[in-house]
Amino acid sequence: MKTQSHLMATDKKPTIVSTEEGYDRWSEIYDTNKNPLTALDELVFFNHFPNSISDLHIADLGCGTGRVSNMLAKKGALVTGIDGSAGMLTKARNQSQDTITYQHHNFDAPLPFQNHSFDHVVSCLVLEHLPDLKLFFSEANRICKSGGLVYLTGMHPGMMLKGNEANFTDPVTGDEVRPKGYAHEMADFVNAIQHSGLKLDEMREYNGTTELAADYPKANKYLNWPMLVCFICKAGN
Ligand SMILES: C[S@@+](CC[C@H](N)C(=O)[O-])C[C@H]1O[C@@H](n2cnc3c(N)ncnc32)[C@H](O)[C@@H]1O
User: Fold this and answer.
1) Ligand 1 atom closest to Cα of 88?
2) Does the beta carbon of 129 lie inside 6 Å of ligand 1?
3) pTM for the full model?
4) Is 142 near ligand 1, meaning CB less than 6 Å away?
5) Would you say the C-alpha torsion 117, 132, 196, 73 has a positive or negative sign?
6) Which CATH number fits domain 22-234: 3.40.50.150, 3.40.50.2000, 3.40.50.720, 3.90.76.10?
7) Atom of ligand 1 at shortest range from CA of 85
8) Whose CA is nearest to atom 25 of ligand 1?
9) In the 8-state DSSP scheme, what is residue 133?
């Protein structure tokens, strides 16, 4: 028989909050709360992103606490990280390198940059939070130099079919909190890319593996099941 406390721990509905509030709250523990999707994203990043990026200007859209911005800056890139959560940006600034600048901006509105401002544009694990993919992809295309790489990754729609959404456990209340997300289908991504002027060079899907599950037991649910999708595009402007 379930005790009342057991019921409270397992049967309580997740609290869904705005993306901004969700990440502001998550920022306190985000970097100590690494998950298999982030690990997989990191594992494959330089399979697709060039290593020789010294002195290149790169925009990191939805930079969060600066995970990807720092990976790029370590290779000599001049990075601008943009994010809509003040909390995530505070963490990013506290662990930043000199060649990174951070800016607060919500992707509901056009990006505050001139056309062709960046050599490359990257955005990792943000897409599932965006209601308007067409605006986001069009803006990524606009701010990138013609022919520059626009590299976009996201939670694979297959993960959502198993009920997964970005979430964390609030350390104070013990509640599961979900920053608002949108269950895009693969066709939504492809159609938005087509509409944006970007040229899709390659799309890759990555499954959960036993190696990943050995480090992150949560990934056992996704063995041989798609977790990550990557779109490797060129700016067409
Ligand atoms: C899962 S985190 C990924 C952070 C980072 N890219 C990484 O891979 O470690 C998603 C980030 O996207 C940001 N984000 C989501 N929707 C946004 C929006 N509409 N405008 C600006 N930032 C947004 C969140 O604030 C959060 O920092």
Assistant:
1) 27
2) yes
3) 0.94
4) no
5) positive
6) 3.40.50.150
7) 25
8) 85
9) H
Instruction: For residue 186, give the amino acid letter.
Output: M
Angle between helices 19-26 and 86-94 (to 10 degrees): 30
Q: What is the pLDDT of residue 210?
A: 96
Cα separation values, 124 from 1, 158, 231, 232, Å: 43, 17, 10, 12
Q: Is the CB of 72 under 6 A from ligand 1?
A: no
What does pLDDT average to in each consecutive run of 10 residues of the chain (237 residues)? 40 88 94 92 96 97 97 97 98 90 97 98 98 97 98 96 90 90 95 97 97 95 97 94
Q: Is 64 exposed, middle or buried (0-12, 13-18, 19+ CB in 10 A)?
A: buried
Domain range summary for the chain, segments of one domain joined by +: 22-234
